[in-house]
Amino acid sequence: MQFKHPEILYALLLLIIPIIVHLFQLQRFVKIPFTNVKFLKNIEQQTRKSARLKKWFILLTRMLAFTCLIFAFSQPYFSKHRTTQKLNTTIYLDNSFSMQAKGENGELLKNIAQHIIENNTNPNQKISLLTNNDFFKNSTPENLKNELMSIKYYPHKLELSTLLLQLNSNRSNKTNTLNESILISDFQNINNKNKIDVTNVNFPIQLLKTTPTKINNIYIDRIYTEATSLEETTLNVVIKSTLKNNLSIPISLFEDTKLIGKTTAKFDNSTSKIVQFNIPKTTKFNGKISLVDNFLTFDNDFFFTLSKPTKINVLSIGKNSTFLRKIYTENEFNFNTSLLPNLNYNNIQKQHLILLNELENIPAELANNLLEFSKNGGSVVIIPSEKSNINRYNYFLNLLQIGNINYKIKQEHKITTINYKHPLLQDVFEKPITNFQYPTTSIYFESTLNSSSNIISFENNSPFISSIDFKNNSVYWVASPLNKNNSNFTQSSLIVPVFYNFAKKSVQLSELYYTISPNTNIDVLTEIGKDAVLKVSNEATEFIPLQTISNNKVRLDLQDHILKSGFYNITSANKTLQTIAFNYNRDESNLDYMDLQQLISTNKNITTVASVAAIFSSIHDQQKINWLFKWFLAFSVLFLCIEMLILKYFKI
Q: What UniProt keywords are attached to this protein's entry (predicted)?
């Protein structure tokens, strides 16, 4: 029981007054002469007993009457919250693409939105609505209805950890506010990639899990190309199903909007199938792969672009190493090599990757030019010589602010450890190498590098090749000379992917396709004026992304501007420089759902609810108040009436 005016209860202290009146005999008696003393003593004894009992009855009824009257004025009630409390209710509604799945009454998202509109009928009730891309605070039923009717699917799904942080930040910390949070989603496992610990959640959360009527989704997972001839490129399309089946799914290939090929994906009791298309090699091909599956529609189309590859400029300063020329071939790279005395410093800023190939000394002029090159987004690979001047190398490393060389060690070491998760190698190996023949070096330079990550390491865990990554470029340090007299690493199978990716990662060239993400960067190999800007556009939208301009390229940071799959043109002064393709992330296509019991079992603040109607019934119960003052007022009158009856009919 709670009280609207608990301060009135202090009046209960006044009840001591009638107690004092009843306990102390304040009456004055009149003496009357009477001769029969024995009879009088008997009457006196009976009268005293009756009078004492009557007084106690009167005291009790009067005390109860005043107590009920005081309680009535303090306005007692039963409720799950205090009347002075405000109810702060936030509903998270998952509007990601997986909510396109069909339930018993149509698409899950639209069905839930309609149920919320139908149940949110209290005109005085305000609810905050949180989605994957928006937040509507304290909406009235009419505003909430408009927001729900206009809700659209969004390509980025909030992780559970991020969602809980947002809900916690939206909570009111005021003592007179009751916070209520409801999460409505299909709760896929991708919501909980980081396996969040929910034991520290200290506010009540209700979970409503939406469930589709079936979980068989067929979708285009990815594509990749193979160069089969000089005239054609083979396009491999990976089609997946969430369940094994024997379906035959028609697959179509379009060039822009023109249908140019069809084939069929026959699953044959499997969950994956690869189909192929042969595409003529042209300077530009904007393609789209399509299938028909009504369960989820966002993953039925896959966009891609094929264009003539842009060559990457690579300059090697130092020894003329044969292995570099074999890696940096003419069809992909503009590779040049120069001895230090013959170096044309004007060509440095035109490169994308520069290799310092076993220089004994790094002159100040070269160091300063490479510093400017690095600041403009160029990547540098440093391979020392066995005769390297450590002081001159440290001068250059300090210019780049990446650390220093400590000393040279003349001792044979095996190269044993590969960091398969490093961005340089993460797409190279399908699985860890088990029968690896370890290369060796006879000399290596011990160094201390700032914020470096190992790519390949020696058996003693010292770095053999490491990277220091900046926002727009990287510096790679090779701890040993690579000539045949010192190391056999150039004979290893690792030499090609490592040095090939040094160049490929130096420029983020246009890819076959991009996945829509808030962290997409693209390098456009062009030169524009300082006041000029590049624009990204399609038939529906146009925007100017963040861009970093260097001497021979412009890096675009697209952030979260692109939210729809399709083709986008990168333009400068109304001239299209290149076309890029974007597709929705396929993580949601794999219908893998969380077990909510694992969350509930670890925290009593987290509960599940069966329906939207149950949610609003709970909200109504939170706001429901059962007033008791009428009952206390009635009992006060009742006790006063009992007192009057006692006074009238209880004869002494």
A: Membrane, Transmembrane, Transmembrane helix
